[in-house]
Amino acid sequence: MLKKLFQSLRSPLRKPQQHIRSTPEVLNSSQHSLQRSQFSRYAVSIVERLQNAGYQAYLVGGCVRDLMLHIEPKDFDVATSATPEQVRAEFRNARIIGRRFKLVHIHFGREIIEVATFRANHPVDDEDEDSNQSSRNESGRILRDNVYGTLEEDAQRRDFTINALYYDPVSERVLDYANGVHDIRNRLIRLIGDPQQRYKEDPVRMLRAVRFAAKLDFGIEKHSATPIQPLAPMLRDIPSARLFEEVLKLFMSGYAASTFEMLVDLELFEPLFPASSKALEYNPTYTHTLISEALSNTDLRIKQNKPVTPAFLFAALLWPALPAKVLRLQERGMPPIPAMNEAAQELILEQCQRIAIPKRFTMPIREIWDMQERLPRRSGKRADMLLDNPRFRAGYDFLLLRESAGEETDGLGEWWTDYQECNDSERREMIRDLSSKPDATGAPPRKRRRTSGAKRKRAAGDAPNTSGE
Ligand code: ATP
Ligand code: MG
Hints:
The chain has 25 helices and twelve strands. It is an alpha+beta fold. It folds into two domains: 20-195, 2-Layer Sandwich (Beta Polymerase, domain 2); 257-459, cca-adding enzyme, domain 2 (Orthogonal Bundle). Helix 8 crosses helix 12 and helix 18 (336-354) runs antiparallel to helix 19 (359-374). The radius of gyration is 27 Å and the shape is elongated. The site of magnesium ion has 5 residues, from loops.
């Protein structure tokens, strides 16, 4: 008894949190801007059907938040009091999926609506009582959380106040348990509950804070921002497969450039990309420019609805970390090209310890990098063969990226730009011109690099030496 009393005093989760109300603020249709027709009609019909079957059901999370901000939602999530099995029993096109927790996916052609059962937050000291469904490790990180709960508990276990808004399309009312509407108006990312504890429960919330701040152009509220730096190293313990998914969301949502700045400022970049973070320390200008340029280009392509590949992004994020590794291997006597290959292999292997980049992306990363060694060698039929290579475009874009970050390539990018625009006879002439240069392979003339000590130093220390010298 005494122990229980003591625990309840100690555990902040036992008492209502500062930001959670036991009864929500209810906004009726005249008090908010949402309209039922803005939501996916499939999601609305799921909610209606669950309610008709006697369950509570709401639209929740990102879709409510985004529509309040006049942003088109990425997807529509439903939260309900029905268990996954009960949901499945209501819909023929429903499938229970379960990774970290059980969810139901309801399929309508290409559209998938995710239906989640209300869940509760873990009482911090409940380990023994609930060990089958929930558990934490010694640092407080939640390892499993499949504890169902009430609507109020569901609001409380959500990450940010702006993500804990529930919309009922039938009554057209919004339920706000955590002052989310207030934070939307004030453009603030604020964790529900005690920030430090909520980050410890799930360190990925630190990345989510940054992602939403960048996407929505919100600030991170002071108390939610201050614990991030000291807790950032906790990301090292997150399974690498989950981090891969999170990093894709961070960099492929159209706000990668500002996300990167925030990650660096909050010291979240280091646990994600340790080698690149070192490069950022040793060669700040070059590394920062190259990564920012790559990310800004990606953002632009996404805005223009052009395809983007994670391989190109990872190739850019990791490239500045290569020279240090190449240099170390060369100092041990390894010739330049094998050193480059070995360094690339090592770097990718190391990176995959943190972020599990699937093979379908690591292969093209290597190909983009290999292409950097091949682009200077243009003599004979080489240039035309390169042009036919399916990776040429990515390799060429990557070359331009390196140049825009200040890498010295002796006009190689411009040469390739011209070559692509030329007709056959002009191309033959361009190749002939190359052989009159001192280097018969068509690599950028070495002489010029050697005359400039400062330049040479930069080529070695600042950017990978891809000319094979
Ligand atoms: P978007 O889909 O636009 O990226 P979202 O807010 O819908 O944003 P999801 O990852 O789809 O984000 O998650 C849906 C909801 O689930 C969130 O709004 C939040 O309420 C809750 N949620 C997701 N991840 C966490 C987490 N790690 N901790 C607590 N709540 C979470
Ligand atoms: Mg979502």
